[in-house]
Structure formats: C-alpha cells, structure tokens
Amino acid sequence: MNRARAVPKGLEEVADGVWLLAGDIKKAMNIYFIEGPDGEIVQFDAATSSMTKENRRVIEEWGGIDKVVLGHAHADHRGTAPGLDVPVYCHPDEVADATSPASIAPYMNLKELEFAPVRWIYPFLLRRWDGGAVEIAGTVEEGEEIAGFEVVHFPGHAPGLIGLWRESDRVAVVSDTVYFVDSARLKPLPEGEASVPHPAWAWNHQMAKESLRKLAAMKPQVVAAGHEHPLRGEDLSDVLLRAADKY
C-alpha cells in the first residue's frame, strides 16, 4: 500500500495499513488507526481517557483524521473520544450508551465477578477510564465499508458491538468480541489463548458466544482486539471456538 501520509511515531503496524496505539494499564488498552485505499485515516475504538493526550498527538502528526468509529461504548473504549474534536460514529444500537454519562452500562452485573477485590476495584477503574458522554455524528451498520474494511455486527458483549473485516488478507479488528485478557483477575491470558468476555460485562452472554463463533467461521488470520496484542495464525478458528465455550 502506498502511504498517503507519514506514519506518526509510537505506532505499531499490526497489518497492512493498520496501526496500534497501546496505552494505560500495562499498555493493554488499544486504539487502532486504519489507512484506507483512498488515503483516509479512520480511528477504531477510543480506549481510556488517560490516553487522550497521546491520541491527540497521533492525530496531529497524521495531519488530522477523518473519523472515529467506536467498536462499542464501554468506558474503556470511548475514553478519548470526547477530547479529540473528530466526528464519532458507532452502531445504532450503541448510541444510547455512547451518549449516556454513565461509566457503567446498565446491563453490567459486577457481582458476577468471582474475586471480591476485583469486584471492588472495577467501579473506580471504569470511572477513571471514562471520558464521559460522546456526541455521535452518525451511525454505521453491518455490510458498510470503512477504510477498505467491511463492518460486521458482533452483538452480545454490548448490543451494538462491531468489528472490521478485510477479506483480502483475513484481518479482523474486533474490539471486545474476544478477550486476550482475564478480566476477572485483571491479567493477560497465556499467549495464544482467548476467551469470550466475562458474563459480568455482557448485555447478552449467549449472544456474545454466538458472535465469537461467527468470527471463528470467518477464519481470520489476524485478530486485533480491544486489549493486548493481536492473535495471529494460519487458521484461528479452533482457538476462537474454544474461547466461545468458556464461562
């Protein structure tokens, strides 16, 4: 791909034209920048509010970007969005949560987390990560194209959770469709392992499992998620199917 603009410092290229900005706790919070075939730059997900200064620096070094697309509206994925002065888009089913001032979605049930210290700390963390209500400029739905990727709806963890899929090289950028972290223990999963998100966070946990199976059926070779480094392999279907059976 011919680059239309110089790539800012501090980004890791995880696929052709897809860059990762990692930050916050153990650099496990992810923002992606995607350069489309016409040179447009789209930011996917907005991570946590503490990353706003770095996020703005990257945007300034790009010379501006075209839009921000939220994978979903949880506090650790919308955090920088209010402070960027860039139009923000999401799935229609995420608009209510994106525009709400609440840091904890009404369907979350933290009592389902098994370890008491983790249950106690998450309300504080979610408020710390959150940047507040987001003004939504418009919506995107399954089948639309964004920067050379197809929008795919993966509901369950959140009602309007979306990912981006590029068939040509089997790259999936999927927000929290899948976890490479153990959110019940606040630590990464062993390398090469994955999990459906913990049911404590889920709008509909069974639907989250089906969405992960939907991703597995696409046979991706790169899965870039909302936390930790991407998963790679010739066929990640088995890993993702096993992940769907957890919890």
User: What is the level-2 CATH architecture name?
Assistant: 4-Layer Sandwich
Largest sheet: number of strands, sense, barrel closure? 7 strands, mixed
Number of helices: 6
The helicity comes to: 10-25%
Q: Name the strands of the widest sheet in spatial order.
A: 1-2-3-4-5-6-7
Q: What integer value in Å does the Rg equal?
A: 16 Å
The secondary-structure class comes to alpha/beta
Topology:
Layout (H helix, E strand, L loop, with lengths): L11 E4 L2 E6 L5 E7 L5 E4 L7 H11 L4 E3 L5 H4 L9 E3 L4 H4 L17 H14 L8 E2 L5 E2 L2 E5 L8 E5 L4 E5 L5 E2 L4 E2 L16 H13 L4 E4 L5 E2 L4 H8 L3
Parallel strand pairs: 4-5, 5-6, 6-7, 11-14
Antiparallel strand pairs: 1-2, 2-3, 3-4, 8-9, 9-10, 10-11, 12-13, 14-15
Helix pairs in contact: 5-6
